[in-house]
Every structure is written in structure tokens, then in C-alpha cells.
Amino acid sequence: MKIQEHLDKISWSFADKSLFFIYGLVSLFQMRALTTSEWGLFGLMITLHTWIYIVIDSFALQGLIQFGMSEENKNKVNSMALLTQIIMALLASIVVYLFRFELAKILNEDGFIKIGYTLPILILLAIPRTFIIKIVYRCLDYKNLFLIDMSFFGTMIVLTMYYIIQFGTLSFDNMLIIYFTGAGLSSFFAIILKRKELNFDFKGDIKYSKIIQFTFPWTVYSAVNYLPKTLDLYIVQYFFKTDATGVYYSAKNLFRVFDEVLNAAFGLVYPSAVKQIENKNLNALNDLMTKAVSFLLLAFIFIIAILELGLSEFVIKAFLPATYHGAIGQFNLLLLAAVGMPFLMLFSIITALGKPQVALYSAIISVIISSATLVIIAYLGRTDLIPFGLITYVFINAILALFYMRKNYNFQLRSILRAFPDTAFYIKNFILKKRK
User: Fold this and answer.
1) Which of 80, 141, 169, 270 is the residue whose CA sits 20 to 30 A from 383?
2) Dihedral Cα 268, 1, 214, 394, nearest 10 deg
3) pTM for the complete prediction?
4) Is residue 203 helix, strand or coil?
5) What would the pLDDT profile of 6-17 be if each residue is shown by its tens digit?
């Protein structure tokens, strides 16, 4: 894989993820205008919504890329994916609504009852947006991905600024309006942008059972894989109070930039890996995975160093009131997890190779160990150490992925350093051109 050949896609993908960074900065103003308990309640809703859509995406939509590349089956795959997505979204909405009182009692948070009423609306609003984003990834159309996300985040930024300027504060209800409006307008805009790709029929030889055979293990993996990113917030809520949940969610929200960069890398690598495997080009596949891991690792190390040297503390203290300052230590601990995250890229290659069960086994082992770590920390009453649950999960997964790829696909550990000389070469050439 030559980086130069993919600069256009990488540039649009980078621009797209910069929106997450910009909205992350705006979220600092949201936190500042919200109490820690209301921010924690909002975090519980968004985290649950994200987990539900991770499951829906994996089961209903992952096949759009894996089996939708073929022109003769594309429309049929579209139809089956959309119908499955709608059914799953309706089922999830019904379950959340029916069990709202029970969950509120378990979590000792009456505000969860309101989540039970409102979350189903958000789940349904997100159907067009999430479906079309998968189509965008299939087409490698990162320009339109940027435009769709810009409509989502742009709407929320404008509404956030309106409420803060007009009223000087925010409430949980305001956050619902902000997020729901962004999701609805983004879905509408996505339909307009990609309407020509929204073709549906049932012509083709692809069987639904074949899609399920692929997506089911991937769904179980994704559901399990995302648990530590959901479970930690709910463990904090169960053992402590919504105020503590709000502080930890603020640290996680700032850490989200690393998750989004990783998601962007997955979006770039997975479709390319599927194509290389279809073309039986294993050399290009090896080149793809080693460069992906190496360049992401280099970027993360650079960012982590700056944040650990004091930038994170400065930002949190400058923007947030003292009630949120407990997030400084939690965020700096979470940065340790970012060191291992680039190696999780290997699971996109493993999945493209048709081995989702390998990713599933790794996730199960990691979840068991990280969950035990979280519960022990919670019983000790140490909210400051909660990030170790995610850290444990990331590094166990990274080690297992490295071991599997080294054993079966000749992934060499020294290849993770290949980005360093390449980057030095690009910088040197850039400087020489500037001097001329």
C-alpha cells in the first residue's frame, strides 16, 4: 500500500475525524454548563445508545461491505441489511422502554426513566444515518462521510452555542434536543447525498444464511468488545453516584478522540483489506496492516506525549469547574490504553480474512479479565483507578492479536517501526522543497 495513492481518502477521513475533535472542544462548554449529575445521566444514555448501534451495525450492516461489493448482489444485500436494521432497532427500542423502571432501580437513578422514554426515539432517528454511512464506507466515499458528519456535529454545535448564549446554562432536556436534532437532520442530509446508491430489490444469488454466518460471530464479538467501554460507566453508576459517573464520563469523552481515530483507521483499512484478499494479493495485505499499525502508533505516541506533559491538565482546569477536576488523573491513565490501541487494527485484517471467531475469543478473554479488574476497583472505592479496566482490556487484546498474526500471517514485530523512517523521509523532503 502506497500512502501517496490514498492521500485523498486519508485527507477526507482526517477532515472527518477533525469534526469529532472540534465537537470534543464544544463538549467542554457543554460540561461546563451542566452539573456533573446531568452530564453523567446524558453519558449513560449515549453510551447505551452507542452499544445498541454497535450490535445493530455488526449484525445488520457489516454485510454491506463484506457482500455488497458484488454488483449483482448489491441491491439485495442493501434490502436485507435495511430490513434487519429496522427490525433490530424496533426491538431494542421496545426493550429499553419496557425495562426503564427496573434499570432505574438497579442504577439508583430515577432519571433513567426519562432515558427509557426518549432513547427509543434516538434509536429510530439514527437508522438512515447509520445505514448510509456504511454505504459510504463501502464506496470509500470519505468526502460524503465528512459532509454527513458535518451536518450532525454542525447542528449540535450551533444549538449548543444558542442555548449557552441565550440561557447561560444547559440541562439534560436541552442535551436531548441538541442530540436528537443533530441525528435527525444528519439522517435527512445523508439520504439526499447518497440517494443514487439507495437501490433495493431481492435479485441476486446471495443467501441470507451466508450473511448471517459471517455477521453473527462478528456481532457477538462487537457486543462483547464494546462492553468494557460501556460497563465501566455503569459500574461507576452502580457502586457510586451519578456525580461520579459524570466526572468519569468527562474523562472518557475527552479520550474519545483516540477511539474516533481508530474507527477512521478501521474504515480505511477494512474495505481495502477485503479487496486485497479478493485479489489474493497477500503481499499488499501485509503491507497494508504493517503500515496501518505503525503510522497510527507513531501518531498516538506523539499526541500522548504532549498531553501527558501537561496539556490535558491545562485544558481541563481552564475549561471546567472544580467539580470536574477529578477527570484529570482518570484521563491521563486512559492515555496508557491509547498506546495499545493501534494493534487492535489487526482485528480488522483478521475479520477480513474470514476469521471473526478469533477476534471473538480474544474479546471474551479480555472482557473477563477487565471486568474482574473493574469490579475489584469498584469494591475498593477507587474511582480514580476505573480506567485500568479499559487499559487491561486493550493490552490483552493487543497481545493476543499480535500473537495470532505473527504465528499465522508472518507479522513481524519490527514492522511496527517502519513508520518512523518513512515519516523522517517525508519531513526531510518537505523541508528540502521549502528551501528551494
Assistant:
1) 169
2) -60
3) 0.82
4) coil
5) 566 778 877 887
